[in-house]
Structure formats: C-alpha cells, structure tokens
C-alpha cells in the first residue's frame, strides 16, 4: 500500500538491464521493432523480447536469442489483436516467485479501443516456456466511457506487500480526464493476480493539486525511506511523485458468547459477545499497531442479512454497533451485550463482524488476504433429541362459523363479517415459530381474532401485503401434543364486490414438517348481496268514490273535464351495498277491456340532475291544446273485484336511476286524472283492490338472488303496480 507524497521535477525511468546489449543488433524485418526491449531468463537460457507497436498495424512482440557470434534467431512472433492498439509499445518481464527465472511477460496495448470507441487500453499476461509465449489472461483495468491508455507504462515492483512474491505497477495516464491513475497488481506463485489491489488517482487531494498524465512512467525497485518496503516513483506532466509504501497488518478475529446457546424458556435472553483481535505485521517491528473500526451486525451472515433482527445491542437498542480498537501483537478484546427476542428459534442467531482502518493513510494497511468480515452463530437449545433436528406434525382444521348449510353467503350491512374457527394440533416434536398464514381475496379485510380460552398466546397481524394475515401461535415453541383453538374474522370490502370470497390457510413453523397435506386448507365461498334498495309511496287520495249523476261531457277541453287528480310520489332509498344503476317501472291501469279510459297521465317530474330520467307518454291526447271528443261504451264490471293489469290495459312509466349514491334518496312524482265518465257508464257493485301493493326487487344476474317486499295500504279502487330493477349486469 502506498502513501502519497509529491516532488516536482522530471522522472526519467528506463530499464537498463540488458538494453545496451539488445540495441547493438538490428532486426530489419520488423518495422519500429526496438520501441521497447526486455530480457527473459528461462533457466539456463536467456531470451530477448522486443516490441514493434506499429508492425502490420496491429503491433507485434518478437522473442529472439543471440548466439556467441552475435547471430540473431527469431524464436516467436506474437501479433496484436486490434489495429492501432499499439500492442508491444511496452513490455515487462517479471520474476514473480524470486527464483531468478522469468515467470510472466506483460505486454501493453495502451491504445486498445473498447466497445465505446474509447482508448481504454489493455495489458496481456503471457507465460513463457522455452522462449515461447502463451497468453494466460488480461489484467482488469479501467472500466468506463473515457480514454485511459491503460498500459502506457509497466514496471515490476520488488515485493511491495512482503508476501514473498514480486508485484507490478501499471500506469493509465489519460484516465480521469487526463489526470491519470496507476494500478498495483500483486504476484502469486508464478503469475500476477488479474484484479488490482490498489488504485491511485492523479486527482487525489493528497497531491495538493490535480496532476496531469499521472502514470506516464513508473518505477519501483528501491526502498527510499528506509522502512524495509519498496517505494514507487510515478511520472506526471512536469512532476514526479514518490509513493511511500506502508507496513501491512494481518488482523485475526475471534468471538465467543456467554451463554454459548440460547434458552427458549426466557424470551429475553441477554448474551455477552466477546470479540478479540490480534495482528501480525510485515515488516515485523515491536511497536507496530493498527487502529481499526469494528462494526458488529446482528442477524447477518457473510452473504446477506434479515430484514428485521431477532436481537438488539443493549448499548444503543439497534442491530448495528461500532467500536474503535487498537490492535497489536497482543490479544485485545472488547465485550458487547445483546438482548435477544427471536422470531425464528430454529436457525441460529448470527453475528457478523466487519473491520476497517480507522485512519487510512496514517497507519499500517490491512492485508488483502486476511478477512475483512467474519460471521459467527449462536444456536438455540431446541429440546428435540440428540440430533437437535425438530420434526413436527401440525394438523390444521378450519370451520366457517354460522354456516347454515346454504351454498351462498348473503352480504348485507347487518351481515358483513365472515368468522372462522381455527384448530391447530402438533402430533410430534416441538414446532418453533409456529404460525398460521391466512391469504384472502381483496374483497375482504382482516377484522379481528379471538384469544384461546386455555390462555395459549395467539397474536395476529396483517403482513406487508394487505391480503395476508399471520397469526403467531404459542411463540416461541408449540410443544408436542399441544393444541389451540381460536376465531379469526374478516369484513367484506363493500367497495369491491365479487362473486366469491377466496381464503387459504397454511400452518407453518421453522421445524421440519413430517406431513404437509394436513397443513393447508383453501375455501371458496359464493356470495350474494342484499342491495337494500327500498321504496315508499305517498298519494294525494286513498280512494276514489263513484257518484251517480256524473255529467258526461262530449268534448274534453282541459284536465278538469276528465276528473279528479290522482297524484303519487315514489321514493327510492339506497342502502350500504353499491348499486350503479337501477330502474323503476310503474304500471297504471289506462283502459278497461273495452277501451274505456281509466287513468290519464298528465305529468312526471324527476330530479334529472341526480341522474333520474323517465320514459313515458304524457298527455298523449294533447288535452288543453286542442279539444278531444270522448266516447264511452257501456260495460259491465260487476264481476271485476279489482282492476289490475290482468283485466285492464296498463301504461308503463320506465325510470332509470344512474350513479346511485350509498344511502341516497331518489323521487319520481306522477300526476294523473281519473276518468269520471268511465265510471258513470259502467255497471259496478264496488271494485276493490288487495290490501297490498307488490314490489319486486331484482339484483344482478351475477349474484342470482331476488327479494320481495310488501307494503301495507288501505283499500283502493285502482291498483298501481311498481317494479324496481337493479340494472347492473356485471359486478366487478
């Protein structure tokens, strides 16, 4: 790891070893051959490598040897893979394991373009066998949408991390908008790790100013500050930067717990977590120490963490805790108290410990090979035999309460709740975190749950999804042979009418279930809705009395010539069940069987602004606008006890009520005249009507129900039938 220090001047770095020898020879068959050269030490043989970045437009690397007479022979020629990539402009041989034998050759192609047509740059890693290059892999460098020219400078470093293997530094002078960057890659065995261990930008604030073309040249062979670690020199435009290397700390973490296992008999167990740290340092010095930050997280492993924790730290009542520590060669420990309330008593309570530097840049760095995170588990005492494997057998039974055996449930404002009795029994070993999960259609709401009579703890809560409720049963353990009975209720959502109420009940636990088939029950309940539409009427007369001696006018000039008024109002009242559209049909006896007129409609008034409209013929004879010559036939009505639409001809008033509001009132006012002349010529002994007027109420076909209402009244001589229909054809 490198500490940033800047010096002004110009860095001229050239690898001198073998270069003078190489440049005494000429290879005329390769254009621009001697751009960069290096030596390959392969056991008893020495090979030379030279780069020709413009050869054949793609660039080339040539491996050759020279005999004692100075004759040159080509061993291998390796071409680049992209035109203009400048492959071979930089070559660097590396003895990774320090055995004086070249292990890999790094070849730079700094102008290699990515898919975005940016000069990202590329560095190839070749292994060497008897002077033959074999490409192994590519080093991971810049990943972005800008030019970087990664691989413009490459230098071997003398074991900068003191792990026994030499390392590599690579420059990318155009990265970060020409500010530049360098990458450190660590050696391992006989190769270079493809993932960089450190990246330093030329725009780092430690330099005091934004550098330009940082990484255009690099070098790292000497310890310049006498701390036994190689330092790195980096060239930039008009500047040179010396990067002091820092010592390395390998921190080990050991955690222990008191108690070692969690008892379920006490729901609020207090646990003491003891975390100990110890470090080794490279280079080893007696006064070495490293300041770290320790982050502890409950209910988290190395891959993920639970949404909610089953424990909290006593100090801050949170699942996260941070402490500072100074780690040396000696063991250093700290203790943290945890309060545990497990919702899952089968899976162990996890504690993840993450460490990082407290003061980066001013103390030793952490070894990349040592874990920055470790996870520990605190198991539960399960009381499930020696194998600690709990195998339960939950049996669930669900019964609808108040079920009278009818196939359909009628929903009304007074009957809008479904209640179910839940019975759960455990036939085998302990079941931990036992619960019943109820999922229901969105025309229901969870309303309430009852407490078991035996005192068993049951708690029901709506889940994140509003159509799921979870009931915890005898938390944390539902023991062998234990059983429980309680009720759960649902209310209907009257804003979302559906044909069915669908529910599914599932008994679950964290133990292993032996028999799944008796854990689930699904119910589909057909529904009908009482729309609760009512109507009443008010008339101006309760009976019509026929007098002898009525004059029979030959011409009717106005309504007064017809006879007395018979006015009535029909009031429709809606209930709590939504009804979008309804119709009211009023049937009035208009003519006798011999076409003598009975009633004559003169007006129908409605509140059209509230969506009430009627279809009817009003004053079809245009009385009042022109004279009407009336004629009447003698007729014997002695055998007729009542005039209705079966023995008389009726006219119909059809009214549509739209966009009905809940608990609203709607009126239809009808004005008529009774023809005196008809009753002056017919023979009667007294015509009566029934003491009731039937009202028919139809609900949608989708709900398949019909209800009848009967309204009491006094005696009438003429029957008026009123029929009201719900016109909703579909319930959604």
Commentary on this structure:
By secondary structure, this protein is mainly beta. The chain has 4 domains: 245 residues, Methylamine Dehydrogenase, Chain H, CATH 2.130.10.130; 130 residues, Immunoglobulin-like, CATH 2.60.40.1460; 139 residues, Sandwich (Immunoglobulin-like), CATH 2.60.40.1510; 193 residues, Immunoglobulin-like. Helices cover 2% and strands 46% of the residues. The protein contains 3 helices and 55 strands. The strands form 15 sheets. A 6-stranded mixed β-sheet has the order 30-41-39-33-36-35, with no helix packed on it. A 6-stranded mixed β-sheet has the order 47-50-45-55-53-54, with no helix packed on it. A hairpin with a 7-residue loop joins β3 and β4. It is elongated and about 155 Å long. The C terminus is likely disordered.
Unreliable segments of 5+ consecutive residues: 4-33, 687-719, 727-732
In CATH terms, what is the fold-level topology of the largest domain?
Methylamine Dehydrogenase, Chain H
CATH superfamily of the largest domain: Integrin alpha, N-terminal
Arithmetic mean pLDDT = 83
Cα-to-Cα separation, first versus last residue: 68 Å
User: From the coordinates shown, what is the CATH architecture of the largest domain?
Assistant: 7 Propeller
Number of domains: 4
Structural class: mainly beta
Using only C-alpha atoms, the radius of gyration works out to 48 Å
What count of helical segments does DSSP give?
Answer: 3
Strand order of the largest sheet: 30-41-39-33-36-35
How would you describe the oligomerization state of the chains in this entry? Answer: single chain
Q: What would the principal axes of the Cα set say about the shape?
A: elongated
Main sheet makeup: 6 strands, mixed
- Helix percentage range: under 10%
Number of strands: 55
Give the CATH class of the largest domain. Answer: Mainly Beta
Strand content: over 45%
